[in-house]
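User: Please predict the structure of the protein below. I'd like the answer in structure-token form so I can feed it into my own downstream comparison script.

Assistant: Understood. Taking the following sequence of 109 residues as input:
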Amino acid sequence: MAKFASTNIKKGDTIVVLAGKDKGRKGQVLKMNLKDNQVLVERANVIKKHQKPSQVTQGGIIEKEAGLDISNVALFCPKCKKGVRVGHKLHADGHSVRVCRACGEELDS
């Protein structure tokens, strides 16, 4: 049974890959699958898939992104220029924002 992850990463965030063949690569989060603790990152973990031809698509070998485990990515801080851990800070008006644990920079735009 899959364990649901509580994550500090959201769709559209810029992240850094921490482990695997694409270690150090930065990219945007395209899709999240919290049921399987997976995140789809543009231009990271690219695989080749053999596609059978159909009436709509041409067959052949296509390249597409595969999922990465959430534990193998970190949110990118533009001020620190690296992947960082994430904390939360409460503003005076009551909404919570994500902050970099290293430098204190707000990561929400």
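That's the full token string. The chain has one domain: 14-52+60-100.
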